[in-house]
């Protein structure tokens, strides 16, 4: 399908925080609690619309286990956006954010937009990390923040789309060099060089999951 | 053999959940779920007739793992197809799990009893995995909030490390074969299956804390549990994960081993399929990205389960080399498709989710049987990677290795236009040939060092008289092969290695010994190169290379190698420490090479042997 831009995303975070479920909810609009373990990387793709432009999101979902960390690093290359996910019911997944962030900053391009996501917001009764803590962490490190639930789909669309908006804004501001594919952005066949302002219309749901 | 729908076979229904399982126990999902459940339920594996089954049973009843005849017989049955009902017995024989169980001081049941204490203290039962995960999460949170990240009150029977590992395993149980009858859902069968898997993995983490638990192991243990009893599966896992022949070089806590093996596979792939590997590199897909999931789960992600099991049969027989062989076979089958893809986001998914038409038994297995991979080949590639990584660590002292493709050839390739397809192909072939020569030349150097080292040590194992004789008679016409590394670079690397290598490492990974730094810190090559090259023509590597000589580039390289001039004799290692290190390596090598040659000789046809002896 024709698109104006392609953004490459990467989803990172500890094992079991719900990275694969978030991806599946976004690409397939379903919650599948029983799925295969991610060893290495999985893919997803979906088309969204921002400012009247078709944007293809190509999402790389990575393995979270500590021993795979050094391999996960190789996926940061050429990502325009990262979703850094923790589990609001598990304190240690929040505590590990700093090391994830260090990794992300060190191995990606400096303009990569990072969205911090506190997942499993449906499990309010078992909450261990307050929303304010997440917000404070995001503010401190210059990230966008959102709490989501892959189970109820709450804020999942928004998390992916807001990240795309941020990337799109950066393109408009000329921060991203869109001709350099190492930035995780590709210009698609449908690209028109208009410089209209960002209106932020929300995602069309044309494409399903799976890969390109 | 045509495809058949597994519904003609033993389909089991789980009435309460409305699920239908195929003959291997995988749930047959509705069409709308097919995207998520990638399993194919059409199987094409061959059926063994009753007479053959009886023969196989007989073979297993007088099984002797060290007998060459037994092993070649079982390989013959594998080609015909092991019947699913006998697979467990075959694996048990091949892994020789009883031997490990008898020789080990570890007692599985006792270990489970010991684990029971901490589990009770934690309020966790393996029969309720979902609530166990929640409880373990809470405990982990409590431990975190008490500011005791690594210690617990002394009266508790568990440590925070225990909690982490229990939790990780519990979390992965439901994510390993989530559609298999023995692990899916909340049925009594699945609850029992998950409990067994939990126990096997926990006990293994206790049994071998060096490996502990890392993701991928749950898949391997689960497949074993599908064919063996719980305790047998535990010991089978032990054999697989600890024996160097099998997967001991794949699993560790840091993930370094799998990264190393991915590099070895990359070299191997580059050597066998230069053009395709270059294409995959060009689209920026690194070998680790597909090697890791393939190797760590032993190809269990392939959609056709009959193929997976047949691959496992071969792995049980040949170990890690069968893993490499399978990897190469899959890539070869996907070659034309991969060559047409120019985007990493298209290439990688194809490799990660191998399509049914490639992975079905009637396609993948014949291809696998016709793909030849020798153990020594992989060991040589291993040495190459070790050499390169160490060379890399040496820093800027050495010049970077020049690119393998001569730029001239590249330019030629570019200048060739559309209709001259034939010309283009030939140019391509040339460039790939030079790439092969390059890798091959280096490979030969490795092999040469092995042989030479063996040669140097008089007491350990003497070269056969025929070898020496053939060396003397060898023509002295000088001719150099193309090489990507200069002699001095190689020597410098070798000297570093010779000094730094530990015996234990060299035993498992192989090294590149042979040169010693002199008093000025300069490097002197102590290897009598020409002698080694002469051995290339007559020794085991030469024989193997000749046997494999249907591949033109290798023959060419070999022919060139054989005509090298003899030069100076070899001085012996200079210091006692070096002598000792040399001896260690030689012992390892002399153990390896003759056994390989032995096997190869047996498989080489008699006519060729005669020809060889005449040549010698």
TrEMBL record, chain A:
Its main location: cytoplasm. Residues 201-212 have a biased composition (Gly residues). The keyword Transport applies. One of its GO terms (biological process) is vesicle-mediated transport. CDD domains: Rab2. GO terms for cellular component: acrosomal vesicle; endoplasmic reticulum membrane; Golgi membrane. Residues 193-212 are annotated as: Disordered. Pfam families: Ras. SMART domains: RAB, RAN, RAS, RHO. GO terms for molecular function: GTP binding; GTPase activity. The keyword Kinase does not apply. It is a lipid-anchor. Keywords: ER-Golgi transport, Golgi apparatus, GTP-binding, Lipoprotein, Membrane, Nucleotide-binding, Prenylation, Protein transport, Transport. InterPro entries: P-loop_NTPase, Rab_GTPases_membrane_traffic, Small_GTP-bd, Small_GTPase. It comes from the Eukaryota. It is found in: Cytoplasmic vesicle, Secretory vesicle, Acrosome; Endoplasmic reticulum membrane; Golgi apparatus membrane. Gene3D superfamilies: P-loop containing nucleotide triphosphate hydrolases. PANTHER family: DRAB11-RELATED. Belongs to the small GTPase superfamily. Rab family. NCBIfam families: small_GTP. This is Ras-related protein Rab-2A. It comes from Oncorhynchus tshawytscha (Chinook salmon). The lineage of its organism: Eukaryota, Metazoa, Chordata, Craniata, Vertebrata. The gene is RAB2A.
From TrEMBL, chain B:
InterPro entries: Rab-GAP-TBC_dom, Rab-GAP_TBC_sf, Rab_GAP_TBC_domain. This is Rab-GAP TBC domain-containing protein. GO terms for molecular function: GTPase activator activity; small GTPase binding. Residues 392-429, 455-616 are annotated as: Disordered. It holds the Pfam family RabGAP-TBC. Residues 601-616 have a biased composition (Polar residues). It comes from the Eukaryota. SUPFAM superfamilies: Ypt/Rab-GAP domain of gyp1p. Residues 478-490, 497-511 have a biased composition (Low complexity). SMART domains: TBC (SM00164). Gene3D superfamilies: putative rabgap domain of human tbc1 domain family member 14 like domains (1.10.8.270), Ypt/Rab-GAP domain of gyp1p, domain 1 (1.10.10.750), Ypt/Rab-GAP domain of gyp1p, domain 3 (1.10.472.80). Residues 408-429 have a biased composition (Basic and acidic residues). Residues 81-319 form the Rab-GAP TBC domain. It comes from Oncorhynchus tshawytscha (Chinook salmon).
């Amino acid at each position: 399908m024709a698109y104006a831009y392609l953004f490459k995303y990467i989803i990172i975070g500890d094992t079991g925080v719900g990275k694969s479920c978030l991806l599946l909810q976004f690409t397939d609009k379903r919650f599948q609690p029983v799925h295969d373990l991610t060893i290495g990387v999985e893919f997803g793709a979906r088309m969204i619309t921002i400012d009247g432009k078709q944007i293809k999101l190509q999402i790389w979902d990575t393995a979270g286990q500590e021993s795979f960390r050094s391999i996960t690093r190789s996926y940061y290359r050429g990502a325009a956006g990262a979703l850094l996910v923790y589990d609001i019911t598990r304190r240690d997944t929040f505590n590990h954010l700093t090391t994830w962030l260090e990794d992300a900053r060190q191995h990606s391009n400096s303009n990569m937009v990072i969205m911090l996501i506190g997942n499993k917001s449906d499990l309010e009764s078992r909450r261990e990390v307050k929303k304010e803590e997440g917000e404070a962490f995001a503010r401190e490190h210059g990230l966008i923040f959102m709490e989501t639930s892959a189970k109820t789909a709450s804020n999942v669309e928004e998390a992916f789309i807001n990240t795309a908006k941020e990337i799109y804004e950066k393109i408009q501001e000329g921060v991203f060099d869109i001709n350099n594919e190492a930035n995780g952005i590709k210009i698609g066949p449908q690209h028109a060089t208009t410089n209209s302002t960002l209106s932020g219309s929300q995602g069309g749901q044309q494409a399903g999951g799976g890969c390109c | 053999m045509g495809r058949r729908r597994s519904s003609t076979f033993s389909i089991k229904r789980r009435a309460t959940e409305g699920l239908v399982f195929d003959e291997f126990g995988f749930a047959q999902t509705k069409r709308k779920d097919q995207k998520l459940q990638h399993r194919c339920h059409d199987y094409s594996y061959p059926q063994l007739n009753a007479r053959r089954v009886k023969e196989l049973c007989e073979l297993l009843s007088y099984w002797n793992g060290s007998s060459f005849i037994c092993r070649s017989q079982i390989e013959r049955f594998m080609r015909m197809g092991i019947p699913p009902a006998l697979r467990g017995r075959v694996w048990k024989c091949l892994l020789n799990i009883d031997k490990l169980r008898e020789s080990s001081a570890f007692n599985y049941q006792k270990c489970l009893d010991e684990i029971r204490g901490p589990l009770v203290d934690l309020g966790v039962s393996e029969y309720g995995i979902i609530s166990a995960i929640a409880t373990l999460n809470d405990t982990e949170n409590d431990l975190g909030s008490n500011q005791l990240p690594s210690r617990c009150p002394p009266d508790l029977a568990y440590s925070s490390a225990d909690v982490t590992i229990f939790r990780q395993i519990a979390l992965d149980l439901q994510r390993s074969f989530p559609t298999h009858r023995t692990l899916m859902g909340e049925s009594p069968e699945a609850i029992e299956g998950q409990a067994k898997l939990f126990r096997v993995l926990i006990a293994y983490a206790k049994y071998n804390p060096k490996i502990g638990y890392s993701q991928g192991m749950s898949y391997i243990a689960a497949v074993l549990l599908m064919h063996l009893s719980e305790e047998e599966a535990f010991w089978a896992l032990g054999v697989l994960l600890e024996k160097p022949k099998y997967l001991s070089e794949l699993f560790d806590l840091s993930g370094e081993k799998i990264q190393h093996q991915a590099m070895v596979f990359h070299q191997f792939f580059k050597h066998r399929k230069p053009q395709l590997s270059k294409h995959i590199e060009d689209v920026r897909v690194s070998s680790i990205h597909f090697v890791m999931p393939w190797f760590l789960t032993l190809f269990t992600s392939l959609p056709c389960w009959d193929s997976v099991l047949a691959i496992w049969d071969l792995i049980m027989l040949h170990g890690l080399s069968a893993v490499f062989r399978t990897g190469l076979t899959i890539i070869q089958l996907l070659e034309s498709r991969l060559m047409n893809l120019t985007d990493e986001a298209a290439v990688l998914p194809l490799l990660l989710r191998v399509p049914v038409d490639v992975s079905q038994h009637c396609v993948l297995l014949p291809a696998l049987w016709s793909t030849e991979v020798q153990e020594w080949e992989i060991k040589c590639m291993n040495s190459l990677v070790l050499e390169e990584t160490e060379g890399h660590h040496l820093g800027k002292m050495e010049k970077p290795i020049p690119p393998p493709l001569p730029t001239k050839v590249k330019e030629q390739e570019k200048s060739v236009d559309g209709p001259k397809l034939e010309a283009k192909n030939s140019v391509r072939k040339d460039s790939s040939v030079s790439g092969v020569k390059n890798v091959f030349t280096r490979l030969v150097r490795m092999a040469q060092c092995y042989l030479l080292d063996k040669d140097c040590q008089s007491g350990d194992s003497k070269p056969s008289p025929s070898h020496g004789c053939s060396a003397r008679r060898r023509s002295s016409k000088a001719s150099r092969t193309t090489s990507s590394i200069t002699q001095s670079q190689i020597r410098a690397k070798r000297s570093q290695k010779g000094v730094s290598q530990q015996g234990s490492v060299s035993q498992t990974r192989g090294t590149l010994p042979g040169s010693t730094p002199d008093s000025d810190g300069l490097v002197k090559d102590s290897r009598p190169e020409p002698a080694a090259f002469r051995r290339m023509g007559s020794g085991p590597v030469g024989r193997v290379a000749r046997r494999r000589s249907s591949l033109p580039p290798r023959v060419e390289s070999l022919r060139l190698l054989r005509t090298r001039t003899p030069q100076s004799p070899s001085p012996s290692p200079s210091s006692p420490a070096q002598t000792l290190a040399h001896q260690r390596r030689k012992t390892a090598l002399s153990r390896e090479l003759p056994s390989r040659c032995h096997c190869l000789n047996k498989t080489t046809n008699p006519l060729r042997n005669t020809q060889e002896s005449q040549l010698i």
